[in-house]
Task: structure prediction
Amino acid sequence: MTPPVVRPDDPLLADEAARWASAYVHVPFCARRCPYCDFAVVVDGEPGADAGTDAYVEAVVAEIAMERPWGPLHAIAFGGGTPSRLSAVALGRIVGALRRRFGVVDGVEVAIEVNPEDWTDRFAAELLDAGFDRVSFGVQSFDAHTLAWLGRVHDPHQAEAAVVSARHAGFRSVGIDLIYGTPGEDLDRWVTTVRRALALDLDHLSAYALTVERGTALSRSILAGAPAPDPDQQADAYEAIGELAVAAGLVRYEVSNWARPGHHSRYNLATWGGAEFVAFGAGAHDHRDGVRARNVRRLDVYLDRVASGVRPRAGSERLDRAAADVERLVLGLRRVAGVRRDDLVERLVVDPAGRRLVAAGVLRVGPDRLVVERPLVTDEVSRAVLALVDRDPSVSGDDC
Ligand SMILES: C[S@@+](CC[C@H](N)C(=O)[O-])C[C@H]1O[C@@H](n2cnc3c(N)ncnc32)[C@H](O)[C@@H]1O
Result:
């Protein structure tokens, strides 16, 4: 008898994922910088870019050798930047180094973010050979005007063709990322994008509200008078995608993520559950042995440090038990499965801000779990948790 396929919002899955070891690899290279992006990214002509991708791969492999053995890994995730700027052979070399250093469980998830313009049938076959089983395309929109506004280089047909090709190639899970709430995009155009996405029979869908990050070209143009995203328009867009995705058989399991049963992102579920993970590459952040550490973002500095045999850290912070609990609560409440009731949850639900959220139907206190019923106000819940802790002098983090 085949075991039942697990729903992505299953509380038992969420609790189990909190124990999974995983690894993240950051690939900073991009063909161009999207105006809204503040991730650690390098484009041609910027410091370190001329060293080339081969030098980067060597550095990441060397950095992996500097990390103490651990594991085995349940998930390996490549993000960016644009991981698909590396060849499949180079990506496979990094996967091999991770497997050797940490070991992997049977059926380990090996996932990659890909930009549609980089996809070919040949790349698909090579990625499968390199051990990848999960691909997520940075589609963002199927509306040509919105894509242009977002500074994307692919067109809607290229994105559709890439998803179809990935399906035929045989990846275990195929998904896309979308962005909603772009100024000027009305609800009809957004709904058309969502319908085109769902017609692709996706295993996984992520949809993020366009966020104006400080220091980006988008933020500068808004400061100079260009229209900003409208929160009401974003709320309508979020509701629309929620209804359409569920009608298409996807299950929401986090504020911004939907999956077909059996196709949740293991890496994401582990990190939302507060599981520890190792991370490599310029600008990568990790969480191991109770310490959150971040690598230097500048590619040239990253390459120099690794070449001189030094772990390329920009800083780290040891979270004490209470601060780690808060982080687990804030992240865990983003999941539909919510969090188990513990001392901090009990304090939250009797605190005035927490009581108001329960009375307003935002938070639901079940017999053994606390869940957020209205995902659009998850940020308000996070603020209530943080305020609770700010008033508690026993909670602190030391820079180390
Ligand atoms: C690290 S980015 C992916 C980068 C990938 N190279 C691409 O261009 O799609 C991961 C996802 O975060 C989302 N994202 C990045 N910046 C965002 C922003 N300012 N507002 C909303 N979503 C954003 C996008 O949906 C993107 O696919």
